Amino acid sequence: MHTEVFSELFPLMSTANPQTLEWLLSIAVEHEYPIGRAVLMEDAWGNALYFVVSGWVKVRRTVGEGSSVALAILGRGDFFGEMAILDESPRSTDVIALSPVKLLSIARERFIQILFKDPQLHHRMLQLMVRRLRHANVRLQMRSSPPAVKLAHTLVSLGENYGNQTAQGKEIFHIPFKDLADVTEIGVEETTKIMEKLHEKGWIKIDTVNQAIFLVNFRQLMNLAGKV
Question: Model confidence over 4-31: pLDDT tens digits?
Fold first, then answer.
């Protein structure tokens, strides 16, 4: 991967200097995982920072024997593992591939080393971490909102962050309804009914063959989510 592609693909790297980009790419390790594979186990948090080159993953927490809850859905251009790198505290979460996924990893010691050398990268990382905190605050504020509003907000966020613009609208991965329900903090039955209703209204198109969801009427979804 060229440094220009690396910088454009990952917002975290958009302000890093060329020397930083070249060095990070030279030490990055490539990984590929199939659907359903754990790409990061809970005992591995803190060892490296991971970048999603392609595909979709979910961060989940184990809540009981054979049971788990999805905490976040991440797609192309995002990263994970930064909190564990910085605070070194143990985690009770892991990361699972929702689709075939390609990752780049950079060892903890190497990444911390470059943070001290490149203040622009350091500042950019702080900006993105603050953005995640704000997103978490918005989710807390929306807990009392109607389920349809909350689900629309989740779909819009996924479309804005990871959607691929097509003739049919923004395309996102056909995320399992259980995971959509978890991250939206509503029931699976509610999620299924709302998604079917949105599909019937023509606001979204669910393509099970190609494992895609097209956000056809993005403006209406934004209105429903209260983002307009």
Answer: 888 899 988 988 888 999 999 999 999 9
Cα–Cα distance, 101 to 55 (Å, whole number): 4
Collapse the DSSP code of 100 into the 3-class scheme (helix H, G, I; strand E, B; otherwise coil) and give the result: coil
Contact 58/169 with Cβ under 8 angstroms?
no
Residue 58 pLDDT greater than 80, yes or no:
yes
Residues in contact with 68: Cβ distance below 8 Å, sequence separation at least 6, in sequence order = 60, 61, 62
pLDDT tens per residue, range 105-145: 999 899 888 888 888 888 998 898 888 888 888 888 888 89
Residue 60 main-chain phi, psi, to 5 deg: -130, 160
- Which three-class secondary structure state does DSSP give residue 65? coil
- Distance of alpha carbon 135 from alpha carbon 148, whole angstroms: 18
Q: What is the third-level CATH fold of 3-140?
A: Jelly Rolls (2.60.120)
**Sheet with 48-54, side-by-side order of all strands:** 29-33, 101-107, 48-54, 79-80
Instruction: Name the helix (H) or strand (E) containing 215.
Output: strand 212-215
What number of H helices and E strands is found in the chain?
9, 12
Query: Under CATH, what is the fold of the domain 145-225?
Result: Arc Repressor Mutant, subunit A (1.10.10)
Instruction: Report the alpha-carbon distance of residue 101 to residue 196 in Å, rounded.
Output: 28
Q: Provide the sign of the torsion angle of the four alpha carbons 130, 85, 54, 92, taken in this order.
A: negative
Domain ranges of the chain: 3-140, 145-225
